[in-house]
Amino acid sequence: MLFLVALAGCGKPVAGGAAPSPAAPNAAAVPSASTVPVPAAPGTECRAAPRATLDAAKASLAQAYAKQFQIGVAINGSVYEQRDPGAAALVAAQFNRVTPENELKWQSLEKQPGVLDFSEADACVAYAEQHGMEIHGHTLVWHHQVPKWVFQNDAGEPATREQLLQRLDQHMAALAKHYGNRLKYWDVVNEAFNDDGSLRDTPWRKIIGDDYLDQVFLLASKHFPEAKLVYNDFNLEKPAKRDAVVKLVRGFQARGVRIDGIGSQSHFQLEVPTLQAIDDALSAFAGAGMEVLISELDVDVLPPAYKNQGADLSLNAELSAQLNPYAECLPGDVAARAAQRWADIFAVFSRHAEHLHSVTLWGVSDRYSWLNNWPVKGRTNYALLFDRELRPKQAWQRVLEAAAR
Ligand code: G3I
Fold first, then answer.
1. Cis omega (within 30 of 0) on the bond before 380?
2. How far does the centroid of ligand 1 lie from the alpha carbon of residue 289, in Å?
3. On the CB side of 296, how many CA atoms lie within 13 Å of its CA?
4. Which one of 67, 186, 319, 354 has the largest count of C-beta atoms within 10 Å of its C-beta?
5. Which residues have a Cβ under 8 Å from the Cβ of 156 and sit 6 or more positions away?
6. Residues 6 or more apart in contact with residue 314 via CB below 8 angstroms
């Protein structure tokens, strides 16, 4: 049975944290007992931070938003293999759709040509089906996590357009044969645009040509006639990128290429993007006749290592204390800002509920967030709604309460 009441103030005292500091000339520079942040547990919100007062065993995000949109979560083996039973129970209680975080990527399914290994993806799909959750397939065409052989011929030279399209055709056919129509949505193409709206120069584009997005969506509609076909990307709040995606949709519609939805990843920070920019992007996609999915939501609370950080996996910065300021615990004022940010973001989503199919969080707990390792490996981030001890944060409660407005 889940027992997730927030236990404000519990936890081990930190050695040395409570000793009164004698008055000294440079007292201001020495943190006093009251200014040393004390973690309730390592990597959680500091003890002084406001905590959730509602019980996550009794209130569920999915139920709270049932009349507006589905609430999804990206999961990994900790959940579907029950390696973390608490996280698995939390997912089942709080969410009603899942996205396999890595299991359906080409690299996970088909490391060697024609040798398909569905074991992890099957375990993930089985977990979701046991709990009556909708499953979001992620992702068919991406420039990351694709084995090199996909883009090469037998001699190790670049594959031809025909070879690559045939490989993709076979890959989709294998997925369609294996899963039938059990996966209701597919991210057909992931991250094809640069932030300035130009097409990203990926191996897919280089080999197939500038019409590759048409070709890929046409293949997907052949193999997944009943699934909703989605274009998925990050930084879609940037006007140039947003407009490029709207133009893509309009072009598809004019040429008779089926596309059903736009997945806006929504890897947000505390201040960026603005609520207005989020609102504008949702309006633009809905205005183009698209179903909209918030596909990978999280809120990074750490200092950005790059301007216009987005979610470009090729970015990588050195770990430093400056870039990892909350290694012990998250101070109350930052936790409060994050909680407010989550509530504000969901208020925008609610205004678009008519066209918004789902809001998916990119992970269940801070313990599993990719943002602990990107763009700086080994940071302590606090980007999700449940802490490292799986306790609900104040942000969770604010999101829950925002549903009622
Ligand atoms: O499975 C291998 C394992 O065999 C190996 O021992 C280990 C050593 O590093 O790596 C494992 O693969 C890792 C994989 O996650 C599974 O854990 C990769 O190195 C690692 O790069 C990969 O990271 C994932 C990343 O996509 C790249 O695929 C993150 O978990 C995942 O959260 C992230 O998700 C992406 C979305 O797909 C697209 N949008 C952005 C989002 C965040 O980057």
1. no
2. 32
3. 28
4. 186
5. none
6. none
Which pair of structure tokens corresponds to residue 29?
């520079």
In sequence order, the β-bridge partners of residue 189 are 141, 231
Q: Residues in the chain with pLDDT < 70? A: 1-36
Spell out the residues 6+ positions from residue 246 whose beta carbon is closer than 8 angstroms to its own.
Answer: 284, 285, 287, 288
Looking at ligand 1, which residue's alpha carbon is closest to its atom 38? Answer: 190
323: tokens are 């870039």
pTM of the model: 0.91
DSSP 8-state code for residue 194: -
Q: What is the pLDDT of residues 176-216, one digit of tens each?
A: 999 999 999 999 999 999 999 999 999 999 999 999 999 99
Q: What's the pLDDT at 36?
A: 63
Q: How far is the CA of 401 from the centre of ligand 1 (A)?
A: 33
